[in-house]
Write a structure and sequence with these properties.
Blueprint: H1 10-15, E1 25-27, E2 31-32, E3 34-40, H2 46-59, E4 72-77, H3 82-92, E5 100-103, H4 113-123, E6 127-133, H5 147-168, E7 171-177, H6 195-200, E8 203-209, E9 215-222, E10 228-235, E11 238-245, H7 247-253, H8 257-269, E12 271-274, H9 276-283, H10 290-299, H11 301-305, E13 310-317, E14 320-327, H12 335-347, H13 349-356, H14 370-380
Parallel strand pairs: 3-7, 3-8, 4-5, 4-6, 6-7
Antiparallel strand pairs: 1-2, 8-9, 9-10, 10-11, 12-14, 13-14
């Protein structure tokens, strides 16, 4: 049996108590143990943020109002001169921290980086946070430029760093860059390199900032942290937290406002049948395309329509895809009953059938036929 594979029985995992008392975060809810990527555009303030985090952790003070675990910090400032580091330290700190250490050079990942880091940790066991600024400065040489080779290279390098962090129970933060092409629908797509980078890391922080603005958005996602967005403002010499949005608040913001206008419209007429284009016209919405509108109705049904006891069915009529909205006002104004109505819609197979197909509203099957499934897809991508 390979020495890299160690069997863990389900019985042992089930019955053996594990130590859950040890903190799993260096900065609560922001930087857990393991491998973290902080990605941002050049000159966007990443290094200012990481140096401030290093000072906060090494001195045990909160960062963005979040508790920190005081420990030793190793900051690999691979793009800074001593003069620049000194100037920033004098701006950020009133006194030096005895638990913060710097290195200005270090080996590549394929030339002894882990060995050197292991020696530092053995000599300084209090170090639990390692910041590498930037990842590019420690990357080993790679051969080939194909996407396959790039993926394998990214996966190989970061997997070793993650394994190292897990083995020694530390947090490693790699400062990285974003692509020039923006993707506001998924910040992870903006990270430079292959998807192996975001896939391997435990935690991803993406700093989105327009160069002419002091404001920025920090998007956080990961295995051991809750997804959130932080609205930040840079007031020299540090970043300040303006607002923090939870995963639920982020999801709610993605719901198009026009869907709430549909709810009010259906409440007035109680029942309506027609195409997505016709419904857009009825509510006076001119900005949203019909196919995106139809897809949003399906996507956000349980967030917008079900709590208001509005059932939606779909069928093909005269060569076009129509949807029928029915409002049952029996529970109007009663939040508790509305919640029960939404839960009933969620739990009932019959209601599931009504949401997507109306060819047989009493059917217990979500899709009475293949045509029903095709109808759902056509409804989502209906042309104006």
């Amino acid at each position: 049996m390979s020495h890299d594979m160690k069997l863990i029985s389900a019985e042992d995992l089930f019955f053996q108590p594990l130590d859950h008392t040890r903190s799993k975060h260096i900065v609560d809810g922001l930087i857990p143990l393991g491998l973290t990527i902080l990605a941002g555009a050049p000159k966007s303030g990443k290094s200012w943020m990481m140096l401030d985090i290093a000072l906060a952790v090494s001195s045990g003070r909160p960062f963005f109002g979040k508790e920190t675990v005081q420990c030793g910090v190793l900051y690999c400032a691979l793009e800074d001169t001593e003069e620049r580091l000194q100037a920033r330290l004098l701006d950020l700190a009133e006194a030096p921290s005895e638990h913060l250490h710097f290195v200005k050079t270090c080996p590549k990942t394929d030339a002894g980086f882990q060995t050197s880091l292991r020696e530092i940790l053995e000599q300084n066991p209090k170090i639990k946070l390692v910041i590498v600024d930037t990842l590019q400065k420690i990357r080993g040489g790679g051969s080939g430029k194909s996407s396959v080779n790039q993926y394998e290279r990214d996966d190989g390098e970061l997997s070793k760093l993650k394994k190292f962090a897990d083995r020694y129970g530390i947090a490693i933060v790699l400062v990285h860059h974003l692509r020039k092409m923006k993707d506001r629908t998924d910040p992870l797509n903006e990270i430079s390199g292959s998807t192996a980078i975001s896939g391997t890391a435990d935690t991803i922080l993406v700093l989105q900032k327009d160069r002419s603005s002091p404001n920025a958005k920090l998007v956080l996602t990961g295995r051991d942290v809750q997804q959130k967005e932080m609205i930040l403002r840079f007031v020299h010499p540090r970043w300040e937290l303006v607002q923090e949005k939870t995963e639920e608040e982020i999801a709610k913001e993605r719901i198009p406002d026009c869907l709430y206008r549909v709810v009010e419209y259906i409440k007035q007429c109680h029942k309506w049948t027609g195409t997505a284009s016709e419904l857009l016209e009825e509510i006076g919405e001119k900005e949203m395309a019909a196919n995106a509108f139809s897809a949003s109705i399906t996507k956000f049904y349980y967030e917008v329509f079900a709590p208001e006891c509005i059932k939606i069915s779909s069928k093909r009529s005269s060569g076009r895809r129509e949807r029928t909205f029915i409002y049952t006002p029996a529970h109007a104004g009663n939040a508790k009953q509305n919640k029960e109505c939404a839960e009933k819609n969620d739990d009932s197979d019959a209601y599931d059938g009504d949401i997507y197909t109306a060819d047989n509203p009493s059917s217990s099957s979500s899709f009475a036929s293949l045509d029903d499934l095709n109808g759902l897809l056509e409804g989502m991508f209906e042309m104006p």
